[in-house]
Design goal:
Blueprint: E1 2-6, H1 10-21, E2 25-30, H2 36-44, E3 48-51, H3 56-59, E4 64-67, H4 76-84, E5 87-90, H5 91-96, E6 102-107, H6 112-125, E7 130-134, H7 140-146, E8 151-155, H8 158-162, E9 171-174, H9 189-197, E10 208-212, H10 216-224, E11 230-235, E12 243-246, E13 250-255, E14 257-262, H11 271-286, H12 291-300, E15 309-314, E16 317-321, H13 328-336, E17 342-346, H14 356-365, E18 366-372, H15 377-383, E19 390-393, H16 396-406, E20 412-415, H17 428-440
Length: 442
């Protein structure tokens, strides 16, 4: 079988290694340049590859094509592949065909990384053999090729779900839905939401689907869709007989028996993380992990880098790195959890953002807006009549310097950009790292 991999990053090279191990003829193609460590892996494993181009005749003679999530689905090569009817899969689809391990897959517009990492922590803390992959950690395919885990916890994006055929997790989680990446889904919110729901489309009645009962779009679609998996809801607004819910003080997990924990004991801060902690706890209970072990994990978990990460407190000002907030809804959660007057750093590559969703929170919580991007006009135009203090900056150094001047003792400086990072940075990690470096400069 001839297998072609599009994209030479973590997921693409992982898929190439797995294909090679399974005795396939492998060719990898990347339109950009391949990083040196990945290039060396391909050479060491005698895998044929090209970079800086796509040679169509070498790609379109494949039996199976594996696409990295970074390759746009509207790219010319993808249109050609679809026209020819060649099987096109994401790395998670490809790798899942070669493992019998139980897969716990997490999707949603926000909180995916945190919840995936928390479930991984719960399983690992209980002594289970577990791998972490998908959008975070090591390539899922590479782990299937080289490691032997009983469980895989995967963070899965809508882009990866676009390219599945048979992917069937043992437990799937859909945390929430909000308008994100609409540029890739014809600016149609329902089309994007349905892409997320594909996480459960191949599940059968011996599988589980954990969902957010408070999420309006999820509720609407569940009325139309036929879900075969056993459905388990979580809610922060109503009491549930099965699943999980929260009141003002505690979370309650209702599965087999009741288990509860004080919210103030949770390692994660913010109302959205109460929901994430409940979703992760349901998954833990489904895998027969004891209440005591889950409790211990929820208390000891350390937050994900670039997600509401406290960088430092300097001269009485807290600096928080939420660079991973690349859409308005993620920033909504960040602002909602702010307890002090906030100097807010926002901006980057706008993905069709609608700032009305956070307008009220900005009025209540934000004392000054510091725009960080090459083109900040849309943000300035939206907030100029609502906030006096708006600053226009085009480098991290400049943005942090402005924040230092404005912020007073007892304030918080929050980097929560609402936008992608590609105008000034390599990715959101690079943006978060540069923020931390500037904050910590003496």
């Amino acid at each position: 079988m001839r297998t072609v991999i599009l994209g030479g990053g973590e997921s693409g090279v992982g898929a190439a290694l797995l294909a090679k191990k399974k005795g396939m003829e492998v060719f990898l193609s990347d339109m950009g340049s391949i990083r040196e460590n990945y290039r060396q892996l391909l050479i060491q494993n005698d895998i044929d590859f090209e970079e800086g181009m796509h040679t169509y005749e070498k790609i379109l003679n494949a039996d199976w094509i594996v696409k990295s999530p970074g390759v746009p689905k509207k790219a010319d090569i993808i249109l050609e592949i679809n026209q020819k009817g060649i099987r096109l899969s994401s790395e998670i689809e490809f790798a899942s065909e070669f493992t019998d391990s139980k897969i716990i897959a997490v999707t949603g517009s926000n909180g995916k990384t945190t919840t995936t990492s928390l479930i991984y922590h719960i399983l690992k803390n209980d002594g289970l053999k577990v791998g972490l992959g998908g959008n975070i950690g090591k390539s899922f395919a590479k782990q299937v090729a080289e490691e032997n885990h009983d469980y895989y916890v995967l963070e899965v994006s809508s882009f990866q779900l676009d390219d599945i055929q048979n992917f069937r997790p043992y437990i799937s989680l859909l945390l929430n839905l909000s308008k994100d990446h609409l540029d890739q889904y014809n600016y149609d919110y329902e089309e994007y939401a349905l892409a997320k729901f594909r996480i459960t489309e191949n599940q059968e009645n011996d599988n589980f689907f954990i969902y957010n009962k408070d999420d309006e779009m999820s509720r609407n679609l569940l009325e139309k869709l036929e879900i075969k998996a056993k459905m388990l809801p979580f809610s922060t607004s109503e009491t549930l007989a099965e699943g999980a819910y929260a009141d003002e003080d505690r979370i309650f997990i209702q599965l087999h028996e009741e288990f509860s924990l004080k919210i103030e004991e949770l390692a994660l801060m913010g109302k959205h993380n109460v929901a994430n902690s409940m979703a992760a706890s349901i998954a833990g209970k489904l895998l027969n992990i004891s209440n005591e072990s889950i409790r211990n994990s929820l208390i000891t978990f350390q937050a994900v880098e670039h997600r509401l990460e406290l960088v430092s407190e300097i001269n009485g000002v807290q600096y928080i790195n939420d660079s991973k907030a690349t859409n308005v809804n993620a920033t909504y959660y960040a602002l909602e959890s702010m307890k002090k007057p906030t100097v807010w750093i926002v901006g980057g590559v706008d993905k069709g953002n609608d700032y009305t969703e956070i307008e009220e929170l900005v009025k209540r919580k934000v004392k000054a807006i510091v725009c960080l991007g090459l083109d900040n006009q849309k943000i300035i135009d939206f907030f100029k009549d609502k906030k006096q203090a708006i600053y226009d900056t085009s480098s991290m150094e400049e943005a942090v310097a402005v924040c230092r001047n404005i912020a007073e003792k007892g304030d918080t400086v929050l980097l929560s950009p609402c936008c992608a990072s590609f105008d000034l940075f390599e990715n959101y990690e690079d943006r978060g790292k540069k923020f931390k470096e500037e904050v910590l400069k003496k």
